[in-house]
């Protein structure tokens, strides 16, 4: 990456000589890069470029769009090793997982759009009307740090495929993979101005992007707090919004489930990316009479998660992405102890041998009260709450008893029963008996977890307006 000191505006790498933002290596705390803390002026230039490019790109043929996405897909494959290492260093996901997920998923998602685009109905007939699906316009994309390139790709690829133009403001905590994307797109046939990248803080460049009258849509992934600000700002001039926000997802283990498999599946999911995953199953609901056994199984599963340098192949649990995030998670662990839940594993001290970097012990609390702050608030770290329940109706009530509704899981020996309970969860996706992740299935949240859906045709439709011609 040669362009980290620049922004990418109107097909050019534009020098930035003002203040910079330090990017830290999560495993050591060292500064590994500096990126622009750009000003509002750079953001305005990028929006103007995207606005100017829209007239042409919105009229581009499907073949042109597919060609660019094929070139992008090839570039993502070619630079996969670099992407995995970059995100591993920034975010702390162990390198093996980062290779499959942080680098692999962006290419997979791009491929899913390449597969669905040729048959996507950009117009259809309804009675005497031709219904057309037209690009929304200039899209502002704002993304977080936990799956930094994946979250960018989920917006940029369908937006470009829809005929929209884009201004991306990536997370300032993990911005480097967005630069790799910009470098790849710079080498494709994408016309200048269709994709722009401006790096900086949320309260400056992010704020300009969400309030600018020439931005027609904001597609955001991040915290519910920031999503709320964006929804308010967008209301002023009726911008379209798509919001992917926080979660506090429940794994409901029914009495007849294979307890060991269900606990293992839940713990692995909860600790993925050190718990820095919006869909993490952070509340494990177990029948009261199986509570102690479930806690023992969870403690044993957690003990296998060797913490360490995420660049080493043997590491199972990496650090968190920033000192701020580490401190926030430690405060929650202290809160859990103060609230009187049973500390089953882990605790607020750094794991042994991990004095540098942003490490937190994988922690399990038992007998957690469903209405406590620990069970209600998104922690975004390796902390699992085990919550006992008395019957199925109570389990469903507890699972649905937070402001969120992003993901969930149900485990039962009876597949129909599991599906029945899954259908009662007020959440955007439910994993039934460990069902596999599907990059073609819609992804998004109920309630405070989100508005809109990403992935597959649902992700593309977010970027399309509907027009009907009465003939
Ligand atoms: P965040 O809300 O702090 O930041 C996200 C982005 O918003 C960053 O680029 C940031 O600079 C920008 N931003 C901050 N303030 C802004 C403002 N006033 N105006 C415009 N932009 C602003 O979130 P984070 O800490 O980076 O990410 C963690 C959160 O993201 C968690 O809550 C997590 O659950 C959520 N998340 C959700 C999903 C999902 O798909 N639902 C996926 C991943 C992460």
From TrEMBL:
The active site is at 244. CDD domains: ALDH_CddD_SSP0762. This is aldehyde dehydrogenase (NAD(+)). Its EC number is 1.2.1.3. InterPro entries: Ald_DH/histidinol_DH, Ald_DH_C, Ald_DH_CS_CYS, Ald_DH_CS_GLU, Ald_DH_N, Aldehyde_DH_dom. It catalyses: an aldehyde + NAD(+) + H2O = a carboxylate + NADH + 2 H(+). Gene3D superfamilies: Aldehyde Dehydrogenase, Chain A, domain 1 (3.40.605.10), Aldehyde Dehydrogenase, Chain A, domain 2 (3.40.309.10).
């Amino acid at each position: 990456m040669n362009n980290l000191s620049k922004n990418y505006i109107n097909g050019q790498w534009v020098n930035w000589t003002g203040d910079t933002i330090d990017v830290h290596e999560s495993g050591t705390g060292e500064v590994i890069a500096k990126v622009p803390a750009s000003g509002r002026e750079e953001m305005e230039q990028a929006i103007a470029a995207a606005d100017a490019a829209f007239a042409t790109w919105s009229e581009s043929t499907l073949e042109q769009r597919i060609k660019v996405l094929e070139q992008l897909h090839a570039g993502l494959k070619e630079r996969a090793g670099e992407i995995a290492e970059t995100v591993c260093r920034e975010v702390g996901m162990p390198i093996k997982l980062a290779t499959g997920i942080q680098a692999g998923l962006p290419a997979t998602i791009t491929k899913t759009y390449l597969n669905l685009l040729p048959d996507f109905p950009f117009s259809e007939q309804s009675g005497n009307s031709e219904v057309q699906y037209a690009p929304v316009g200039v899209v502002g994309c704002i993304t977080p740090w936990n799956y930094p390139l994946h979250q960018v790709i989920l917006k940029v690829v369908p937006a470009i495929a829809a005929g929209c133009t884009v201004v991306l403001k990536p997370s300032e905590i993990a911005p480097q993979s967005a630069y790799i994307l910009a470098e790849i797109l710079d080498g494709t046939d994408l016309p200048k101005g269709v994709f722009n990248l401006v790096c900086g803080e949320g309260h400056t460049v992010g704020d300009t992007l969400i309030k600018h009258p020439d931005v027609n849509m904001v597609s955001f992934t991040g915290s519910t707090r920031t999503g709320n600000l964006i929804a308010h700002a967008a209301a002023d001039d009726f911008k379209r919004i798509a919001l992917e926000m926080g979660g506090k997802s429940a794994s409901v283990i029914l009495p007849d489930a294979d307890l060991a498999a269900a606990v293992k599946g839940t713990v692995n999911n909860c600790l993925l990316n050190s718990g820095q995953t919006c869909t993490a199953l952070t509340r494990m609901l177990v029948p009261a009479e199986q509570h102690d056994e479930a806690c023992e199984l969870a403690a044993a599963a957690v003990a296998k998660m060797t913490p360490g340098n995420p660049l080493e192949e043997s590491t199972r649990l990496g650090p968190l992405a920033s000192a701020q995030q580490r401190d926030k998670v430690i405060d929650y662990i202290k809160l859990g102890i103060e609230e009187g839940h049973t500390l089953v594993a882990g605790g607020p001290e750094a794991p042994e041998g991990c004095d540098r970097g942003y490490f937190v012990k994988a922690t399990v609390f038992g007998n957690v009260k469903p209405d406590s702050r620990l069970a209600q608030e998104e922690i975004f770290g390796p902390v699992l709450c085990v919550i006992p329940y008395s019957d199925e109706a109570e389990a469903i009530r507890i699972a649905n008893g937070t402001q969120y509704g992003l993901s969930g899981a149900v485990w039962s020996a009876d597949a129909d029963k599991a599906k029945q309970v899954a259908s009662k969860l007020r959440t955007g996706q439910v994993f039934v008996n460990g069902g596999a992740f599907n990059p073609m299935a819609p992804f998004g949240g109920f309630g405070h977890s989100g508005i809109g859906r990403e992935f597959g045709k649902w992700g593309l439709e977010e970027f399309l307006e509907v027009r009907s011609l009465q003939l």
